UniProtKB/TrEMBL annotation:
GO terms for molecular function: acrosin binding. This is Zona pellucida sperm-binding protein 3. PANTHER family: ZONA PELLUCIDA GLYCOPROTEIN 3D TANDEM DUPLICATE 2 (PTHR11576:SF26), ZONA PELLUCIDA SPERM-BINDING PROTEIN 3 (PTHR11576). Pfam families: Zona_pellucida. Residues 131-388 form the ZP domain.
């Protein structure tokens, strides 16, 4: 990247000894000899800007076998730096055969930069200089332009003070990452870094006028013809599509507060487990859309086709496990484009072994998106043990009547999305196995409904068979 000297003179302060500026730790770079550092950076920049050598003329002479006495071809550089705004993209587009090179492109490629002839007069020393590199900006100012010995105290590069100095110069040696107020600007042909050099005397009297000098480093953008020259053509062919494409939905275990459980999680038997089905962030549909969980089942293996399996939601959105425990039910949420539900922790009886203290499980659900108004084929129904009725989460409870029989499906099963959650474990050990207790009530051998003392329990006894 090129570093440019500022056209305007730039002011920089330096003390007779570098140690004078070591009292400001953390302000820019500190070097033992700032003049040597300046020369070193000039060399680095010069090498970076050196163009490739021109090709040897002997490779450009025409062959004598053609009987021609042409002179050597004109020397051209290996590459030319051209502003991106002047590039004619169509002229560099590859095509079959040959075509004449446009005159505008010839002029662009064959233009030679005039070399400045050395003047016999000694060059006047620059009062203010700037060096720019990819990660830093160096500024130096000749001390002779100031009449005040402590002028450096009132000299700032943006918000940063002078941090180095010699008998001749004041130096600002700062990385662009320093908090000096560097401003980056991206243009078509270059990237520029800007700042302002301030001199504001704080003494009661002044011997130099205050000033603000804008500084700018420009890094030209390089253009290569191949960046715009190739236009691939799409050709027909066979496209293979996976039989089980990635689902548009996610199924994530959560804690009671609604936070996603990302790591390993172990539940105890009977403890409620929470799940959330939704579309990934940023892909939710708004308006009259609502998400429905049609079916959910658990397996002890990651493969949803494995056995054994236990179904908790079925029949197009009926929480059938809610007839067995109050912990299993659909839950309301902040948005209808996601669906939360809870399940009581359980294990497979046939998979329980004396050597295992826990069992790993997976949840698999069929999820779809539908209208806000539920139907018999898209609903979220939970069984309410108190009223002994099925209730829809947001809609009319009459939709849930079919949960006791078979609910019709309007869409084919293949159109649904089967989504699997990551695994969790259920602890099989009983923490209360050593606790002893005495029953507080003893059951009678039989009940006599005609007994006056049992009058208040008639309803309970009449519905005993219905509840179990």
């Amino acid at each position: 990247m090129a570093l440019m000297h500022a056209g305007l003179l730039l002011l920089l302060f330096c003390s007779a000894h570098s140690n004078q500026f070591r009292g400001a730790p953390g302000h820019g770079l500190f070097v033992e000899d700032p003049e040597l550092e300046w020369e070193r950076m000039e060399t680095v920049i010069g090498e970076a800007n050196t163009e490739a050598p021109e090709p040897d003329a002997k490779f450009w002479r025409s062959s004598s076998s053609y009987g021609s006495s042409q002179t050597a071809a004109k020397k051209v550089p290996e590459y030319v730096i051209v502003p991106a705004s002047k590039i004619q993209k169509e002229a560099f587009k590859p095509e079959k055969g040959a075509r004449p090179l446009p005159n505008s492109v010839k002029e662009l490629l064959l233009s030679s930069t005039a070399t400045a002839k050395a003047s016999g007069k000694a060059a006047r020393p620059k009062m203010i200089e700037i060096l720019c590199h990819v990660d830093r900006m160096y500024v130096r100012i000749r001390r002779e332009i100031f009449k005040t010995k402590d002028a450096y105290k009132d000299l700032k590069l943006g918000s940063c003070p002078v941090n180095q100095g010699t008998k001749v110069h004041y130096f600002f040696l700062y990385l662009l990452s320093s908090d000096c107020g560097f401003k980056k600007e991206s243009n078509t042909d270059d990237v520029s870094i800007r700042n302002v050099l301030h001199y504001k005397p704080s003494t009661p009297v002044i011997r130099e006028m205050p000033f603000d000098i804008p500084l700018q480093c420009k890094f030209p953008r390089f253009f290569h013809s191949y960046k715009v020259g190739f236009y691939p053509k799409l050709r027909g062919g066979t496209v293979f599509k996976a039989l089980q494409p990635k689902s548009d939905y996610t199924l994530t275990p959560q804690d009671a507060s609604g936070n996603e459980i990302t790591g390993a999680k172990t539940y105890t038997l009977g403890q409620p487990m929470y799940f959330e089905a939704k579309k990934p962030s940023g892909r939710e549909k708004s308006g009259d859309q609502r998400i429905y969980v049609k079916k959910c089942f658990m397996t002890a293996a990651k493969d949803p086709n494995s056995s054994p399996k236990y179904t908790v939601i079925d029949n197009q959105g009926c929480m059938i496990d809610s007839k067995l425990t109050d912990q299993s039910k659909f839950l309301t949420g902040n948005s209808k484009t996601m669906q939360k539900f809870s399940i009581g922790a359980l294990v497979f009886k046939d998979s329980v072994s004396s050597s295992s203290s826990s069992q790993q499980l997976y949840m698999h659900c069929e999820i779809s998106m539908g209208k806000l108004t539920p139907t018999t084929s898209s609903k979220a129904c939970s069984y309410d043990a108190t009223s002994k009725k099925w209730k829809e989460l947001y809609g009319e409870d009459s939709i849930c009547t079919c949960c006791e029989s078979t609910c019709s499906a309007t869409s084919p099963k293949a159109s649904r999305n089967l989504v699997s959650s990551h695994s969790w474990k259920v602890d099989l050990s009983s923490k209360d196995k050593d606790i002893e207790f005495e029953p507080l009530m003893k059951m009678a051998d039989s009940f006599d409904l005609e007994d006056p003392e049992m009058e208040e329990h008639k309803d309970f006894l009449n519905y005993w068979d219905n509840d179990y």
